[in-house]
Give the backbone structure.
Amino acid sequence: MSSSKKSRIVKFKTSDDKTFEVEEAVAVQFETIKSMIDYVCANDCTIPLPNVNAKTLAMVVEWCKKHADERDQLMEVDVDEAPGAVLYDLLVAATYLRVEDLIHRVSQRVSKMVIEIGKLPEEEDVRKTINIKSDFPPQVEEELRKLRRTLGPLSDVLVLFVSSGLLE
Amino acid sequence: MGAFFSLAGPKRMTIDYNKVSQNETCKRQRMSSSFSEEGARLIPSLPDELSIQIVARLPRISYFNVKLVSRKWMATVMSPELYKLRKELGTTEEWVYLLTKVEEDKLLSHALDPLTRKWQRLPMMPNVVYEDESRKGFPGRWMWNMAGPSINISELHVITKDANHRVAVLRADSCSSPSSSAPLFDGSLNEHSDLMTESDAVVWRVIATRDFGSAELRYAKAQKIIKHSDAFMPKVSLLEKPQ
């Protein structure tokens, strides 16, 4: 934004009912609301964000304020401190506001959380990371594991066959 | 397959049904076609539209494991949508495929994921027609240029096999200071290192080796994994019409 132009303020109301003032220079990075900034500012409206809380919006704003080369650093800190939940909130917010670069970075961070390249975790590790329980019947799962062990990638072909067979 | 059918006998079916929640039992019919199921998300705290963004950024080779996380994961890993998204995101991976001849009429194929340097043995391909019969019995070292029309130098792969039947996959790395990072050739490849480092700007790195015993290397290909089945079918035309 050029400094000659007076910076306007865009107001948001977060899901936890807090009013949030964001500089125009940041708000234009939210693709979703970019086109309505003129109208919103002229009429002194507040934009409701029903699925973004204040804490997450603060993170998104912080992200948008940083220069591109500092953003990676920001993500590093976030991941060290924050368990998945914060990143998930961030991903939801980034998607809702359509901050493309942030969507990409957060997705990448979570995917690295799930799996590090060169270190392939077993399905149980992944379940722990994303907090999910297997919904395969135990014997089916055992069978799938056995297939993977003995047949390698071929088990994919059989897995499809086995699963649909059992679920019919 | 037949043997497997018998494993999945009625006794086990009963047990499985008891394990499945009532909700799922009602939807069984629908799930058998698409696996889609309300309530069971890829990642519990995220909508699936966002979770798939994450799954699409996982290395392809991890799909062999993550598909066992849950039914939803399995269905996702096998869905064309995922591979479409990977294409859009530019996370499509290229694997190197090798076809080796173990003995007459017995061919084994292998895939290498250059990223993790992990080998996968592929299903047997019993009906193979050789594209070029003259290759049969080619002595000594084999070398293919893996460059496709759209592949730049940093993705160039070459597959070699030495007299000791050791197969090596080499990748050309564009290198700003070639002297600082010596090529990783070991003894059996040294004799040809001059041939392989033609340009100072390119360093050939051995990214993986494997001993295939007396198997003869028949065919190799680098292929982009743009859909699930690509990981198993390196080249369809090789599978046509047995003679």
